[in-house]
Structures
1.
Amino acid sequence: MSKNRQIIALFIIASNSLLLAGSIFDLHRSILEVSILIGLCTSGTLVIYGYDFAQFNQKGYNELVSNVLKSPIQTFFYFLFIVVIVPFAFFQLSSFRINTLLIICLFGLLYSVPLNFIKKDFKLKKIFYFKNVFIGFSWGGLILVGAGSCSSSIVLAFFLFTSIQVMIGSSIRDIADIQKDQNSGMNTLPVRFGIKNTVRILNALNLCSLGALFFALETNYWIVMALVFLWRAIVLAKVKIPKESILWTQTMNILTCTLLLLTMLVIKISPWIFS
């Protein structure tokens, strides 16, 4: 498996982890709804991250479509996403979930698609830290999609916590891409402040993410946030070590979302185990 496909596979695991983490708070969830959401999340992640929108300026539409069709797996998921899952979802999911998913998709496209009507080759992700905020709240929105509502304080707490954690994770990935971002004119934290100062800033942001504890009235879930906070601190310590940075800026960093889900599941089922 190529490096790019490995990253996309990790993104699919991570996005579904956040979706399922949110669904823990949905007391009326059904297997059908969860299955549709997993299908949407898997296919949608592949569509957004598997399609190189940045090449719109270099290649024609027909060539881009041709490149997509070269991969049977991508072609299958594109077909599944557009022809089957999306229409089915409109009939089965609540308007809240549909609207939130549409906003997430819009964010996912807007931050990378060239907006030539503003300026030639202008992209929102070139604005300092705009990309990371977009990514953070888009992925954090998967918590809301899974929960099916934003009326609960615990759901909002995890939405806020997850959004900040994903912002941090996105910035950590920028450390691995610092050379490429410098060459392409991307104004990221590592490009502007260097790796050491970026790690200091992200450690401070990691600490700020614990502010979500004030909204989480169910104290059991404080353990989840505390463990994710500690894991993130370990990742930030590791990315400063050159020989280990790729493993931690990519794989271990992205799997933070899976750690969040697994910890929440343990917290959820522990009363049944020890009762």
2.
Amino acid sequence: MAISGNTILVSSAHSHKDPLNGGSIYVYVEPAGGWSNMTETAELSFQQKGAGIGEVIATNGNIVVSFNSYTDSAVVWTEPSGGWVTSVMPNAELINSEDQPMGSSVAISGNVIVVGAPGAYSNYGATYLYEKPAKGWNKIGITETARLVGDAIDAGGGGNVVAISGDTVTTTANGLGVYVFEKPSAGWADMNQNAFLVPYTGADDASSLGFDGSTIVVGIPLQIVGVNPQQGAAFVFEKPAGGWKNTSTASAEVVASDGNINDQFGTAVDVSGGTIVAGSPLAQIGANLDEGAAYVFAQQ
């Protein structure tokens, strides 16, 4: 799922319509009278077998970004002047100039789209950044503005999970930490990270990432908490007054007060303002095994 303003996206990447596993994204726009039970405002799809549209999605409200697994390219829909309508053809396609594999995640902020590529360079990893062309998102085969590659030892180049807010891009790096890339004064160009954040030592893979410009949240669903394996935790980094810098000390660690073995808290995380939300899909609620829950944390 993804949300921006009054628009919600819900993916159905393996919908068994014709063609098989072409995938769809369902767009819901808040009605004038407020949210109520409803069907979709529009359905976005691409009539290609195995495209898996919706496997990863992002939106800024009037732009929707996803990934075409069949062509290994990101696809972009732009909202028509009259509002969202059902479409079977994206407005633009994003590729990379080096023909490297992409597709783990996508993110958008304003006129910039980032696409994770952990398989690039023989699985070393990279993140590709695209700025909106002068004529808009309306071209097949748009190539990247910049290639962002981390260079921390053993962490690879990043691109596993990506996030962007304003002029800053973040990405997880082989589960070992988070790279931070800030837009240079001369504009986006191929670059290495400005900072590398390591939330833990010897823990398991970082599988989720939330970023709102000043706060980074990293979810570690297999983290041991106390004596509980795979209870899961999330680590919080707040931007220092002097800007992002290398650190191995998180500002905070958040866990579920009723967490237990194998809850996998932190499978999904997000942050906005002073509020963090973390998903715990295998949490037991009452007598219900694996019912799952979302935990909300307000900044103190």
3.
Amino acid sequence: MKRRVSVLVPSLCRGGMTRAYTIAGALAHAGVEVEIVGALPRGAHIYPEPVSGTTIHAVAEFPFARRAVATARVATGDILYAIKPRTTSFGIALLCRRGRPLVVDIDDFEAGFANERRPRGSLPGRVRKTLRRARNLDHPGYTRWMERWLTRADAVTANTRFLAERYGATYLPSARDTALFDPARFDPDQCRRELGLADFRVVMFPGTPRAHKGVEDAAAALDRLGWSDARLVLVGGREAGDEVADDLVRRYPKRVVRLGKFGVADMPRVVAAAHVVIAPQRDTAVARAQFPMKLTDAMAMAKPIVSTRVGDIAEALDGAAWLVPPSSPDAIAQALVEIFADPGEAVRRGRAARQRCEERFSFSATGRILEELIDRVG
């Protein structure tokens, strides 16, 4: 009988969906039936949009007790798989477990995102801040508390070696569907025309800019090069209200272009438009715990990559990318000069990246890891 796994996410429109899609895809590749279950606020849309055929069940976001009951009703899998050790995924999984095996995935060092800070200001202001923080069930304080319950899980997976070692987890790298992300399916020039980028050398950052991701270093590198036809293209994230991206556009109006959000099925076409994909992670605890999904996108699409020697990146991309020291716009600029000066070497390293992706970061590769794990816990 075909096994069924219910993947529980904190939200269907915020953090966790990208990782949920990769795990669901790898499970399906291993012959497991999969559904994704999570909360969707009223009026919101699932983001990123899934590929066709993905089974998703949405439940009401609040109140929490009603959400837990609704999740228990629709999460019909033989095994529960919680994305992130949050109250809104792992916590709910514990409540609706009913004797089923439970796996937890950790894809970020969330305790490193924010430290608890004592509220300042007047007493009424401090009370309001404390109450607002208490109502936010995805606050890092709750996540740190939920981490103490990881021993209740039958297994834990993590997408980097840093996290796997920290939590005693099975290493499960982020993966891409290399049949969907196949460079042979796309004409890069046509993709650039469709996105309005035909006149530019496109240095692409797919993802939400954050301080630890070093996007500012990439913008500074292009500014120093002074190439009139080069653009740092930011893909995804929030269209407005993103402080890092908004600041980059203000500081480098002639260097930075922002594209909107794209679903998973559209991302191969978008990445195909890049001349270079860049992921200049800075050397912070949060960055060391991450392996950016944008790198697997670029690897699968055989793109030249510029990244930094932070966390798992050097091991994953050694010999298949341009690796530079973190927080070094000058080194990024030099790597870009080399890429555009030697197209043949850019193609060679791009193909090497594609091969490494097929061997280590494909649904086939991670599906084998998950198949063994499911056999063990189920």
4.
Amino acid sequence: MATTGYSVNNNLTNKLWAKKLNVEVLKDAYISKFIGKGADSLVQYREDTNKDKGDRIRNGLRMQLTGAGVLEDNTLEGQEEQLITYSDDLLINQLRHAVRSDGKMSEQRVLFDLRTEAKAGLKDWWTDRLDTMFFNQVCGYTVQTDLRYTGMNTPTAPDSNHIMRAGNVSADESITGTASVMSLSFIDYCVERAKTLTPAIRPIKTELGDYYVMFVHPYQATDLRTNTNTGQWLDIQKAAMTGGQTTKNPIFTGALGVYNNTILHESARVTNGVNSSTGAAVTTVRRAVFAGAQAACIAFGGEDGPDTMSWTEETFDYGNQLGVAVGAILGMKKSVYNSTDFATIVCSTYAAQHNPS
């Protein structure tokens, strides 16, 4: 009787597992709900390097015209206004990781299948790495210099117009004490600044309206929850968060609440502060991030589709050991034009672990 089988090195096998892995990574990544192909997405997925060769995408920004124009039959010639444009480069590079068995006897001693466990382990690894890349970028966490953790692009510190610090101090290391914790007033200040900056920070369009997003660390979330003053945590819960309407858009999923058209999200990956003199982490400070549309961008190399991530299986020691490697060509970056953050505002506050009194 003739049978058909597929070995571990068969191309169809590899493509199937690559597809499974890619789907699960994108499903489980914290930032996946914020990624979209449109200009109204918080993290814009750029497809330029899917079809064309190259190791970078050059994003352009045209500033709004500000000239007064001319009235009636006054001469327009010679009164033209120059277009002002800026660019921002998103670099992509290859990142890979792998697992390898000790040998067939080791595999015999356990009940699980190595390939299945490799996929699970590498999925968790990639999920964590994508989320880490995002927060190192949008928080401007210059402490981290290893490009493998920063989306293949060097993080840049927020400029002076795109960072706020508790106590109105000039450096993260100067933020001290419980009087400098996160409060809802930071959101009010961020919304005000987002609307009055040039260029203004655009909110993200959803079926329920236009919203900004703010990411806070769990320590900062606790500070918000335990603030019982009027106008603080007890007053931010909106009907939309409890009425089931938020299921229409993924950016509401898992949100803490909504305040001043800003959706609050909590993540332990929100980074520490950065010492302005030494460049080291300030462990008692966390950098919450207020974000609008096109706050960051992400791109992959290779053909667009389910096999963006590669899956390769190899055998070693005369077939005794099985190795599984997964890789992707990708890049992620905070949007910055003319040395100015485009759609993020960092909010540095005192943030420490809480203990019951």
